Amino acid sequence: MDSKEKKRNAARASLEFIEPGTVLGIGTGSTVNELIGMLPGIRDRIDKLVSSSKASTELLQQHGFEVSTLNEVGDIDLYIDGADEANKRLHLIKGGGGALTREKVLAGAARRFVCIVDESKLVGLLGSFPVPIEVLPMAQTFVSHKLVRLRAQPIWREGFVTDNGNHILDVHKLNISNPLEMETRLNQIPGILTVGIFAHRPADILLIADSNGVREMRA
Ligand code: 5RP
């Protein structure tokens, strides 16, 4: 079974969490794209939809959905999104697609966060995947110097501009033995808009697809 098929299975498994009348938040990425393709089949269960990126919004609209803003809906019942890495405490690294800021906002606004991944994303220790950090362009060098002082290696994702008009630093070699502490610490650096460590707002449920099916982990 290839990784696309596993992603599709994880996405399919998340459908059962969408109850009638759900205000649904939608993440970004190839796993979520699989989910978006399945949503027309359960259209009657969705009250309103909010999206975490221009890319997901466009795809949802292509499937005939109207996309609301978070300001319009207030709270979200359920947020479904993928991840770049997840540990067994359901702390995540996100932002491989560069949509981490809106993803973190929607996760924070959601009563329940279901994360859908294939087995390759489950790790013992976060940090093999470089941590995406969204920075204000004018603060990029300043933030990079601060990260180097933490013995990390920030690499500018050259040519990429986020939906919010900012830049991404992909941070290698960050010591994330304590994800809560590192997220807090990085959040103190002026110029950082969003850190791609999701530890203070982890997933509530992780759906992990492998060749045998989909298993569920809860925080
Ligand atoms: C986008 C994200 C994605 O959830 C993450 O990159 C996983 O993507 P994929 O489902 O394509 O593996 O955080 O900003």
Short description:
By secondary structure, the protein is α/β, with parallel strands linked by helices.
Fill in the keyword field for this structure.
alpha/beta; Alpha-Beta Plaits; six-stranded mixed beta sheet; four-stranded antiparallel beta sheet; 29% strand; globular; binds ribulose-5-phosphate
Report on this model:
By secondary structure, the chain is an alpha/beta fold. It has 2 domains: 140 residues, 3-Layer(aba) Sandwich (Rossmann fold); 66 residues, Alpha-Beta Plaits, CATH 3.30.70.260. It has 7 helices and 13 strands. The strands form 3 sheets. The protein has a 6-stranded mixed β-sheet with strand order 2-1-3-6-12-13. Strand 1, helix 2 and strand 2 form a beta-alpha-beta unit. The longest helix is centred in the N-terminal third of the chain and has 12 residues. It is globular and about 50 Å long. The structure holds ribulose-5-phosphate. The site of ribulose-5-phosphate has 17 residues, from helix 2 and helix 5. Ribulose-5-phosphate binds next to helix 2 and helix 5.
Tally of alpha and pi helices = 7
Bound molecules: ribulose-5-phosphate
Report how far apart the termini are: 28 Å
Which sequence of strands runs across the widest sheet?
Answer: 2-1-3-6-12-13
Give the CA-based shape: globular
CATH topological fold name of the largest domain: Rossmann fold
Helix-strand topology string = HEHEHHEEEHEEHEEHEEEE
Strand content: 25-35%
The whole-number mean of residue pLDDT values reads 98
**What is the name of the CATH class of the largest domain?**
Alpha Beta
Number of strands: 13
CATH architecture of the largest domain: 3-Layer(aba) Sandwich
Percent range of helical residues: 25-40%
